[in-house]
Amino acid sequence: MASELNYLDHLAVESARFADVLGDVPSSAPVPTCPDWNAEDLLWHLAEVQWFWGTIVRTGLTDAADVEKLEPERPSDRAGVTAFYKRSSSDLTEALTSASPSTPAWTWSTEQSVGFIRRRQAHEALIHRLDAELTSGERTAMDAGLSSDGIDEALRVMYGGLPPWGTITPDVGRTLRLHATDTDDSWLITLARFTGTEPDTGTEHDEPDIHISATDPGDASQAAVSGSAEDLNCWLWHRPTVGPLARSGDEEILAQFDATISPGIN
Q1: Cα(213)–Cα(192) distance, rounded to whole angstroms?
Q2: Lesser CB count within 10 Å: N end or C end of the chain?
């Protein structure tokens, strides 16, 4: 799935669409999917994100201590924010194009590579392009292949990622299958428990989680959710779907999965 995608092409398309959509939206327009933000806040957010990751790749940062110092100053007006976004977006694309996916780079994940950043930023641009369109009222379709890969990233990395100090204990037999009806991709998810203590803060965790095997054994599940790749991706990101999702099977498993993803993705 992921190997067939050109993340740089998708990043360029989604970033350009994001800017085009917000170009005609007043700065004060509320963003329905990000209640604390207006349109200018959304523009600044993606500008800052793309500047951050472009800087990491361009300067070859691999140390978390150096990354903590990265914080751009927000321009004082919309024109300045727009100009900053355009520079940051262009610089990010150039940096990611110039570096091999295997190049070491700091990330918040266990995968420390430019390849991780390429994938993550394509999906960051996709989701925020949708936010921009929902703000403007001009929603367009999301690429099915990228959306399907977004489901995989959301499940394995954003929800199911495991820090080195944590432990995942699968609840064998309590499984849920997600099926993207348009791409025919599917994921077998086992409900699980995450435990561990953060070494830096001492914060203890004991909470619901999910586990996904590296390869899908094709086993039957106790519950299922199906829909288009776009709609499943939006659902996992707590964005409105275009059409309804079909839910079937064990209601308790469905409810526990809902509860697990209810905090959303930060």
Answers
A1: 12
A2: C
